[in-house]
Request: fold
Amino acid sequence: MPAIKPKPKAFIFDIFGTIVDWRSGVATVCEHHFKQKNIELCPHTFADAWRAKYQPAMEKIRSGNRGYFALDILHRENLDQLLAEHELTNSFSETEKQELNKAWEKLPPWSDSVEGLSELKKVAIIAPCSNGSISLMTRLAKFGNLPWDCILGAEIANNYKPNAEVYLKSVAAIGLNPDEVVMVAAHNSDLDAARDCGLQTAFIPRSTEHGKGQQIDLEPTSEWDYIISTIGALAAH
Amino acid sequence: MPAIKPKPKAFIFDIFGTIVDWRSGVATVCEHHFKQKNIELCPHTFADAWRAKYQPAMEKIRSGNRGYFALDILHRENLDQLLAEHELTNSFSETEKQELNKAWEKLPPWSDSVEGLSELKKVAIIAPCSNGSISLMTRLAKFGNLPWDCILGAEIANNYKPNAEVYLKSVAAIGLNPDEVVMVAAHNSDLDAARDCGLQTAFIPRSTEHGKGQQIDLEPTSEWDYIISTIGALAAH
Reply:
């Protein structure tokens, strides 16, 4: 019989895909800039290509081949690469490239996120445990009215998920034991890593994170502690 | 003529004394515990004595003679010393000592703090830049409804104010330049250190922080950028 787990005192959240719709948000900002320049690129394809460079960029840091740089810097490096691949390097000024990079600060929350977090905040500590920096998480919270109690995640550990340090240092920073904290994510792999660190887990499917033809993370791939369809459902538990 | 300073994009705050009334808060919790044990100690004198051990404890870390330990741990060490000085070490169980130490998580905000911060949050990033840990700041915010955007301060730098790193790493963590950020404090020495780092400064006198006979920080001792009587006045500027 599995051990009874303690009542959660905190819920920590993956952000990109779990709380906010990064693909629509990035595409909206890119579309605006592309139109101004008469660039005929699909903004959603561009957003997907930008995001595709995310894991390889972090892997250099996770593997120890590069020191910690905040995600804002990795996003900008990836943007520069992507523009070069499309021969668009000279199509944007430095200021415009900075504006494009701020697309990641303007991502719409999923429709249930703000209300659900607000409910949950009444009964527990809520915080991002994202690969985004404190700066990025702060601005994203202001953009989308996400009512965090504090900001945890990559910058607390100077490393990137799914490295164990990110979960463990985030939990330690709020003075709790791992089994008192629930990691909430739309990605099974994130929960796998969190469970290995002793955290409780909650899976919420986000079936259009990658657009209409999404193939991954449509279902839980393990027996997570909670499987929910809205963030608010966690407060009801 | 002095250079014109940029419009502030963030306000970062000293907490103990500036936003919350630590002396009343600590005394309230101590009084409750002392009464249960029939201990005839003045809780305000006890709070003052506990606080008096604060600077020496941090100084060991600032001077490099000790690695970084969160303030929660220093508070507990100081409590243990203080109880020993009063021959009360065995009067409290370990659980009761932990409860006493949590007094620092239950400090009432000054009457203008919550409303002023809520106003300011509409126009800028607001965050603690305190010597308190992320855990302590998070719990204090929940206790007093302090609506922070994120939590900065000692734990971001693994050092203690007035060490420059605490101000500079706090500012860097929100992606701003020092002159885009205002340090708000009821302590002239805190503002001195922040100004040396290039931050803008705001002084708010809290004339009863140390009780009725307070002698220090009743007036600004320098030409700070803002001198205010309520937190809300910053939003009006």
In short: Residues 22-105 of chain B form a domain with the DNA polymerase; domain 1 fold (CATH 1.10.150.240). Chain B has a mean pLDDT of 97.
